[in-house]
Amino acid sequence: MQVNKDKLKSALLQGKYVSGEDIEKAEEEGTKNKTSFADVLLKNGTITNDTLGQALAESMGITYADLNSRPPSREFVQR
Questions:
Q1: How far apart are alpha carbons 69 and 31 in whole angstroms?
Q2: Distance between the two ends of the chain, CA-based, in angstroms?
């Protein structure tokens, strides 16, 4: 699945997970190192994997389920 970079940036900014400056710096570093701005934000500790997951879900208009903090019950998984 292809992630829309602009929608992801918008979700990160609207959710106040990062600043515009954070994104600009991450894009510059990503261009230099041939990696994505999201990878740079993760590597630098600006966002966590959970934050990225939340922003990705928001950018696609779907609900984010954090299974680390709210794991499903054993009975639910075994169905």
A1: 34
A2: 27
User: Does residue 1 carry a pLDDT above 70?
Assistant: no
What does the pLDDT look like over 45-59, one tens digit per residue? 999 999 999 999 999
Q: Long-range contacts for 36-41 (Cβ within 8 Å, ≥24 apart)?
A: 36/5, 37/5, 37/9, 38/8, 41/12
Please tell me which residue, 2 or 32, carries the higher pLDDT value: 32
Residues in the chain: 79
Q: Are 14 and 61 in contact (CB under 8 A)?
A: no
Can you give the pTM of this predicted structure? Answer: 0.79
d(CA 19, CA 29): 16
CA distance 10 to 78: 37
